[in-house]
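subagent[fold] <- orchestrator: predict structure for attached chain, return tokens only, no commentary.
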Amino acid sequence: MKKLVIATRNRDKFKEMKEALSGVPWEIVPAFQFEGSPEVVEDGTTLEENSLKKARVLSEFTGCAALADDTGLFVEALDGQPGIFAARFAGEGCSYEDNVRKLLGLLKGIAGDGRKAAFRTVISLVHPDRPLQQVVGEVVGTIIETPRGKGGFGYDPVFQPLGFSKVFAEMTVEEKNKISHRGKAVQKARRLLQNQ
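subagent[fold] -> orchestrator:
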């Protein structure tokens, strides 16, 4: 079976991606399974650039096809922050809780439409011998004032998608994958992988 390397060191993200890609005719393996796999510096200015760089570096290192995503959280009242810096919003080496705390602190006193936000994921699929493919998934929602739920990771305890009463952290992995930014992008990537 062909190997597809998921270009992430985040075990939570790998678990979610592997679950969402179950059934594709590929062996799904994490980048951290390859000894000496390089730490990719995300120095692009867009999700597209960072996603492509991660996939390209891992594909070249492993000789396998590689899939990488880059995700941003764009909050209206914060002029699109944290944007592409969502994972390290509170600084290098910060925890999920640190990022959520900083976000909620910046939104203190802002109500209603000011708390509108969008999660956007770009997935790049790089094959050693095929053209680059990129897909995008997006979900719009609101940043709630107090974290809820025990599931998910990152900003899941404070992101409530439009039309839902639950935040991502209150949903099962299956529920979240059906509607989330990453879930939508992965479904598009699935269709590409089914045909390769």
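orchestrator: received. Logging for downstream: Strands lie at 2-6, 26-30, 65-75, 82-83, 116-126, 133-143, 159-161. The mean pLDDT is 93.
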